[in-house]
């Protein structure tokens, strides 16, 4: 089984606990560089950079990390309604060339009407998807080398073109996630990879089947991915204890405020995430090893797979059996959890860290030196 495993850059903040400043850490360029370089070294194929007013700008973050990485890919937000499609295409082509073909784009239509209004966008949910479809047609066309004339309801361009093409042909891959009917139509017609948040298997299977059927009507095929957190430990009991610790500083007032804020979103996906836990902390295991605790206070991806390495790998393989080939994972704090995932989960997925693929040097791996001068005993094979 060949899977693409991505990690996450926490540009909106990071720490040991959700919903509190206790155990939080400063997220600056140095820290983001550490996470990106660790992800590359450990064998992750790329990193998702989030978007929104609570995050650092994903384009600038991605551009800043190109020079300090070599193979890592960057999944960057493409924002219809906030950006001109032709200007966004020129930016995308430039970033693709300067990175040597290491950028992917995540089409984000938005879900918070308050934030969208602050960015000058006042379209309804349905209108945003109309605009996103028009945007994507123009964006893809000019990146493919076409001169585009387009007279749509929301976008009109004449003689639009990109003079300096991207490295990836016909354009950098386009990712997208959305759970509404119009979102599935957009995915089927326009995108390369449809990504779902981590929902129970039957619900993900239903979405995949719907997008597949709609894509077939357009004579297209679409790849599939899942965005989910992971809490992996040496034993499943330790993993569940870590999940409990992650929300141990949450009180009912904080949860209620978070859910009230998220309830204004018109995103069907966000509504589905909220329905999994209903603001309650007493029934958070919503499917085997699938925990909805993250969504008590976090918008977007709100579930985590919890268990030892073999168990989490088995759950991922169940998604893979549905046709999923890409997973975007994350965990708190993101630097340490990247190592835990690589050490405890990757061996069960046959993923080899880059550090082991490089020529061996005179430096041999060993644990902490005991009593300042004794090497640990080798583990019997």
Automatic annotation (TrEMBL):
SUPFAM superfamilies: Bacterial luciferase-like. GO terms for molecular function: alkanesulfonate monooxygenase activity. It catalyses: an alkanesulfonate + FMNH2 + O2 = an aldehyde + FMN + sulfite + H2O + 2 H(+). Its EC number is 1.14.14.5. Residues 5-326 form the Luciferase-like domain. Gene3D superfamilies: Luciferase-like domain. Keywords: Flavoprotein, FMN, Monooxygenase, Oxidoreductase. GO terms for biological process: alkanesulfonate catabolic process. Pfam families: Bac_luciferase. Catalyzes the desulfonation of aliphatic sulfonates. Belongs to the SsuD family. This is Alkanesulfonate monooxygenase.
């Amino acid at each position: 089984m060949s899977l693409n495993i991505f990690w996450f850059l926490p540009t909106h903040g990071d720490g040991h606990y959700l919903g509190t400043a206790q155990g939080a850490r400063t997220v600056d360029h140095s820290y983001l560089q550490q996470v990106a370089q660790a992800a590359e070294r450990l064998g992750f194929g790329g990193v998702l950079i989030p978007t929104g007013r609570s995050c650092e700008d994903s384009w600038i973050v991605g551009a800043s990390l190109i020079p300090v990485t070599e193979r890592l890919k960057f999944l960057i937000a493409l924002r219809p309604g906030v950006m001109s499609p032709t200007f966004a295409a020129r930016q995308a082509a430039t970033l693709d060339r300067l990175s040597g073909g290491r950028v992917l784009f995540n089409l984000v239509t938005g879900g918070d009407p308050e934030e969208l209004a602050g960015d000058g966008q006042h379209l309804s949910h349905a209108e945003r998807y109309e605009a996103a479809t028009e945007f994507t047609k123009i964006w893809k066309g000019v990146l493919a080398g076409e001169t585009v004339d387009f007279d749509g309801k929301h976008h009109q361009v004449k003689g639009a073109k990109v003079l300096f093409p991207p490295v990836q042909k016909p354009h950098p891959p386009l990712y997208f996630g959305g759970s509404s009917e119009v979102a599935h139509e957009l995915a089927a017609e326009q995108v390369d990879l449809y990504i779902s948040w981590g929902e129970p298997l039957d619900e993900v299977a239903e979405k995949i089947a719907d997008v597949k059927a709609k894509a077939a009507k357009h004579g297209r095929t679409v790849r599939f991915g899942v965005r989910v957190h992971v809490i992996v430990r040496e034993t499943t009991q330790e993993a569940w204890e870590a999940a409990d610790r992650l929300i141990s500083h949450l009180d009912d007032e904080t949860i209620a405020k978070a859910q009230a804020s998220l309830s204004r979103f018109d995103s069907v996906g966000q509504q589905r995430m909220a329905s999994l836990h209903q603001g309650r902390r007493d029934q958070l295991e919503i499917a085997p090893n699938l925990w909805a605790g993250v969504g008590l206070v976090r918008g977007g991806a709100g579930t985590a797979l919890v268990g030892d390495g073999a168990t989490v790998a088995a759950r991922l393989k169940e998604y893979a059996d549905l046709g999923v080939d890409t997973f975007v994972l994350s965990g708190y704090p993101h630097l340490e959890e990247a190592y835990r995932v690589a050490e405890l989960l990757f061996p069960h997925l046959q993923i080899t860290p880059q550090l082991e693929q490089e020529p061996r040097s005179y430096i041999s791996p060993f644990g902490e030196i005991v009593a300042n001068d004794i090497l640990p005993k080798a583990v019997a094979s």
